[in-house]
Write a structure and sequence with these properties.
The chain is an alpha+beta fold. The protein has helices spanning 7-11, 21-30, 115-125, 127-197, 202-216, 226-242, 248-257, 262-272, 276-314, 326-336, 362-380, 435-445, and strands at 2-3, 32-36, 41-43, 51-66, 69-76, 82-84, 101-114, 322-324, 344-351, 358-360, 383-393, 396-403, 448-454, 457-465. Helix 9 crosses helix 10. The protein is rod-shaped, with a radius of gyration of 36 Å.
Length: 482
């Protein structure tokens, strides 16, 4: 039930204390007083913004609904605190909805002013301030969208730079091996023709090929330590030299690497007779062909693995919102950031085996992992331990990213998730702070980020709900309007 309010009561509120009598009477004429019981909702987030509310007496709490969780942002019993249609001065240019929920914590009296009247009063009484406030509102929204775009470009740059760097070695190895493979194949064919033209019959060539197949099929000596390898090369080199095999010391390392010693060389000599030199060269070249094929296979497997990590990181081929294995996301992020991890930084992972798949926007979460890991690496300044742990706690999945760096100063702990706040110099980290990470986790996923820090032990905990609520419309963090 609403009742009239006296201008004198409005004057005692800090919000209206500087208004003249005419303006106070105008407010009293168009506004009214309404009483709310303990626990009663005054206005609900997302509903059409119809009233501007000012506390006359009692206590209220303001909260934001993040998925199915109500996150209280402030509470107060100070007369004059306000909420509701606080942006009504913008007029019709944006859809006016309550950006928060206002609830009475004990029986409270509220002054209610229709949103249209409140907007008209602000625009009429404070025209310059209205323009400034509009500029701040739209300017901050535009800046936030630009920053979100920059964050996505930064993530794309991370993928490109990391992938290019990591692909370089296996790609170069595959190209080199492929080039050498052609030469070895031609050489092996020539040696085989040479054996046949020199009178080695088909039976002996078949025995030589069978011996070659057995050697490549696993009939090899056990792996040797470096000293034993050196001794074996010396022994085989001497044997080849004594039997008149040319380039004996060039052949010995490849043969020993394939597990071939003097005993096998004796069998080759028995088969090839006086064409031992040609036979040993053919055997060496065919073994090198197999080794080069193995190198190409390993390199292409590595390339495939890197591309799969990049795909997992970017999630380009997957639905924007679905259940995924957090371990896969974390591992793909580590792969993409491998080049950023100094040699003196130890990476330690501890993934809970019983953690189920979690409903998330995977590509956006990878931006969070990237930001937290890069910050941890910067904090350690080249040496230390980066720890990544996952575990389950009640109905939440928890990802903990820790470092042994210098820690976060206590005076900054309450501000690190503030938009644009950063302690890094220009050119260090992403330069974007942790605001976007907070919004991705809290606003997009209904989770939470917590941090504890002291020198040598800083830990960020990202908490995500295990049960999928109704996915919000859209997937652009920068499009969330308040």
């Amino acid at each position: 039930m609403s009742t009239a309010v006296e201008p004198a009561e409005l004057r005692r509120l800090f919000l209206f204390e500087d208004l003249d009598d005419e303006k106070l009477e105008w407010l009293a004429a168009y506004g009214c007083e309404r009483t709310y019981a303990e626990g009663e909702v005054i206005c609900a987030q997302g509903d059409p913004a119809e009233f501007f509310y000012v506390l006359l007496d009692g206590q209220v709490a303001m909260s934001h609904q993040v998925r199915d969780h109500a996150v209280e942002t402030t509470r107060s019993d100070t007369p004059g605190v306000y909420g509701g249609a606080v942006q009504a001065y913008i007029g019709e240019r944006i859809e006016q909805k309550y950006a928060h929920t206002l609830r009475a914590l004990r029986p409270s009296r509220m002054f209610e002013l229709p949103a249209r009247k409140f907007g008209k009063a602000v625009r009429s009484w404070f025209p310059m301030a209205t323009h400034l406030l509009e500029g701040v509102f739209f300017g901050m929204n535009n800046v936030r969208r630009l920053v979100d775009q920059r964050e996505r470009l930064t993530a794309l740059g991370t993928i490109t730079a990391g992938l290019t760097h990591e692909l370089n070695n296996p790609a170069a190895a595959a190209a080199r091996a492929a080039s050498e493979l052609g030469d070895r194949l031609i050489g092996a064919q020539k040696r085989l023709v040479e054996l046949a033209s020199d009178g080695v019959d088909c039976e002996h060539i078949a025995r030589l090929v069978a011996l070659h197949d057995r050697l490549l099929g696993g009939d090899r000596q056990p792996a040797l330590d470096p000293i034993a390898v050196s001794d074996a090369e010396d022994e085989l080199g001497d044997w080849l030299e004594e039997h008149g095999v040319g380039d004996a010391w060039d052949l010995a390392p490849s043969l020993v690497a394939a597990g071939i010693g003097v005993d096998v060389a004796d069998r080759v000599a028995e088969i090839a007779g006086d064409r031992l030199g040609v036979a040993m060269h053919w055997l060496t070249e065919t073994i090198e062909v197999a080794q080069l094929q193995s190198e190409i296979s390993e390199a292409t497997t590595r390339i495939t693995g890197l591309l799969d990590s990049a795909r997992q990181y970017s999630q380009l081929d997957r639905a924007p919102y679905q259940s995924v294995d957090l371990r896969t996301l974390l591992d793909s992020t580590l792969t993409m950031l491998k080049r950023k991890i100094p040699v003196d930084v130890r990476v330690r992972t501890d993934y809970a085996s019983d953690l189920p798949d979690v409903p998330v926007y995977a590509a956006e979460l990878n931006q969070v992992w990237t930001n937290l890991i890069v910050n941890a690496l910067d904090a350690m300044d080249g040496s230390g331990t980066l720890s990544i742990r996952t575990f389950r706690e009640d109905d939440q999945a928890v990802v903990e990213i820790g470092d042994t760096g210098s820690g976060i100063p206590e005076e900054n702990l309450d501000r690190i998730f503030t938009p644009f706040f950063t302690t890094k110099a220009v050119g260090r980290g992403t330069g974007l702070g942790l605001d976007i990470s907070w919004r991705i986790v809290v606003s997009r996923h209904g989770g939470d980020i917590q941090v504890t820090s002291r020198p040598g032990d800083t830990r960020f905990q990202v908490r995500l709900p295990l049960v999928a609520p109704t996915p919000p419309e859209g997937s652009d963090v920068g499009n969330d309007e308040e």
